[in-house]
Amino acid sequence: MTLRIFAAALLAGGVLAAGPACAQAPNLDAVPDKMPFANPFGQPISMDRANAVIAAGVAEAKKRGWDLNIAVVGPSGDLTAFGRMDNAQFASISISQHKARVAARYRRPTKAFEDGVTKAGLNYLLTLDDVIASRGGSPLIEDGKIIGAVGCSGGTGSQDEVVCTAAAAVVNK
Fold it and tell me: What is the mean predicted confidence (pLDDT) over 59-81?
């Protein structure tokens, strides 16, 4: 009898634990009325403005005592400007560029992919070409058009995102 009660309690616990996870599953068959993240692409950001974006990111990172890599790309995802702070980790050079490229090409912050994978369980996102599911990449939007993106890497995801947001504020007003 004790074994049956234990088994029933285990089964009930499993159902209760799985309930919230199942309740939060998105409906992948839903068809939105409007295209999400549909900002059109504009003319590429100039090198001077890209350097101003990097300078704003570096200023924020220095204020907080963080050493990061900061990349700015045009709307196609190709590199326009790059800055590596002294002592920023070398592995993050390509990661910052990757985050910027994805934010520009997919027209959304890379945090959208991170949230999709970690919070919504949309693991299929990882099969899309060139995706990076890590925050720290933000589109640069001027007059409703994407002129590029900035990517930051070298800290935690939340540190990268804070610096990226400060850098993007040069354009995203």
Answer: 98
